[in-house]
Specification:
The chain has 148 residues and is mainly α. It has a domain of 94 residues. It has 7 helices and no strands. Helix 2 crosses helix 7.
Length: 148
């Protein structure tokens, strides 16, 4: 039996040696093809959101103009609320401040003070609390940002 075992061991060694001497054919690897991600589809902006943004941007610029050099920490004067101030000066045709505000409104896309007022009325109808929460409620922050 030990002779047979020895023969089997020698035979298996010969087979192992003969198979090791033959080069193993490399299997070609196919490169993984990845398709580029599709370009994101632009979401069209909501026209009402655009109107809110335009009105808000205009209001912020007006806040800076209505409160020049306002020092939040040291000032004892009250902030001028731009919309209310605009309503006070809108009928004063000789006011240089009114003229400056009209030019500002026109640069922002409003034909006149009346067009700006109508836009506020439209916004107040569609989103009744937006003006107070997003603009007048943040007036102090807007004026602080004017310095930046």
């Amino acid at each position: 039996m030990s002779k047979m075992l020895a023969v089997l061991v020698v035979a298996s060694m010969v087979m192992a040696c003969s198979s090791a001497s033959q080069p193993v054919a490399a299997t070609p690897t196919v490169p993984e093809v990845t398709e580029p991600a599709p370009a994101p589809v632009p979401v069209p902006a909501d026209p009402f959101t655009i109107r809110l943004d335009t009105f808000g941007d205009t209001y912020r610029i007006m806040a800076c103009k209505a409160n020049p050099n306002y020092d939040v920490d040291a000032s004892i004067a009250t902030l001028r609320e731009p919309y209310g101030w605009l309503m006070e000066i809108k009928d004063d045709k000789m006011s240089t401040t009114r003229t400056a505000f009209v030019e500002l409104l026109q640069k922002q896309g409003y034909e006149s003070i009346e067009a700006f007022v109508k836009e506020k009325e439209y916004i107040d109808t569609a989103k009744p609390t937006w003006f107070e929460t997003e603009l007048t409620g943040r007036l102090l922050d807007m004026v602080e940002d004017c310095k930046k």
